[in-house]
Amino acid sequence: MTRTRTSFLAGASFALAASLLSAACSTTAETAPGADKTAEPTTIPTASVESRAIDRYLRVTGSLRADAQAEVSAETAGRVIETPVERGTRVAQGAMLIRISPSETAAQLQEAEANAAQIEAKLGLTPGQQFDRMKVPDVMNAKASLDLAEAEFNRMRSLVDQKVISQSEFDQRRTQLEAARQRYQSEQNLADQSYRSLEGARARVALARKAVSDTSVRAPLAGIVAERVVSVGDYVTRGARVATVVRIDPLRVELTIPEQHVSLVKVGQQVRLTVDAYPGEEFAATVKFVSPSLRSDQRALTVEAIAANGDGRLKPGFFATALLRQPNAAPAL
Question: b/e string for 42-72 if b means 16 or more Cβ within 10 A?
């Protein structure tokens, strides 16, 4: 019985193998006639390997800040009567930011000019005339009196020699001559003092004119009004902040360079900037300042670059990533 089972299993295995072989041949026969006998081999381009210099870049981070920022303050006290600018207004250098009532300062100017004119009249000065104490009216009068006293004294001297007048009368003329000489000297001193007073009065006139001019608070630089903190009707004191003006073209970029890369940075080096606000865009900048010393708390060097910002897209405060091209390119395949 065992031999019969073995013969049966062998026969079954042979039949299964023959069946699979027949199916494979049938499939090959069916597929072969339909195969694409005209297909060409795929062409693969090749290139020769060569060595080239590849630029290397140092990647650092930093922040953008305004090129200049001015906290504008009032230089005279008074009531605000005009505010021609708003936040975001572009202003030129010298443009008016606010105007303060000039009534008080104008009155002070008139008083100072009147005092100066009074002293000028006393000294006999006309506008533009140089001071000469010998041409001051009081000095000229004293000089005339002295000349007359000297003439009288000389005449009396000849008369006393001739015994025509008494010695006492001659001594009286001598006293009058000395008094005239003292008065002449005194008038010259007074003229000098008056001129010094005139200089002080003119200085007060200049200060009063400046106070009138200061009622118009003007922009110290061209830029954008970032903030205006007063309105019409407010009373401001001298030194009170009234507005903030910033210049954002160009912008400054403050970068932090690690100590081990300090030798790779120099003034005039080109910088490529990227900011999160404009993904995929790069902005050009140039290194303008390299700190002479490292910051001890970070062991890093502070570098400042300048970036043009004519369109105003970059804003102070942006976080920036900078790529600084290293001076020596590295060879690579």
Answer: eeeeeeeeeeeeeeeebebebebbbbeebeb
In whole angstroms, give the CA distance from residue 234 to residue 80.
Answer: 5
* 3-class SS letters over 2-39: HHHHHHHHHHHHHHHHHHHHHHHHHHHHHHHHHCCCCC
State the sign of the Cα–Cα–Cα–Cα dihedral 301, 315, 223, 231. negative
Mind listing the pLDDT tens digit for each residue in 184-211?
A: 999 999 999 999 999 999 999 999 999 9
Q: Enumerate the β-bridge partners of residue 331.
A: 53
CA–CA distances in Å: residue 259 to residues 262, 273, 300, 301:
5, 21, 5, 7
Q: 39-78 pLDDT, tens per residue?
A: 678 888 888 888 887 777 788 888 999 999 999 999 999 9
Sorting pLDDT into bands at 50, 70 and 90, what band is 327? low
Q: How confident is the model at residue 36 (pLDDT cuts 50, 70, 90)?
A: low
Contact between 270 and 286 under an 8 Å Cβ cutoff? The reply is: yes
Q: What is the mean pLDDT of residues 243-265?
A: 88
Residue 181: which residues within 8 A CB-CB, separation 6 or more?
Answer: 146, 149
For 248-258, write each residue's pLDDT tens digit: 989 999 888 88
Distance CA 206, CA 92 (A): 26
* Residue scoring higher pLDDT (190 or 5): 190
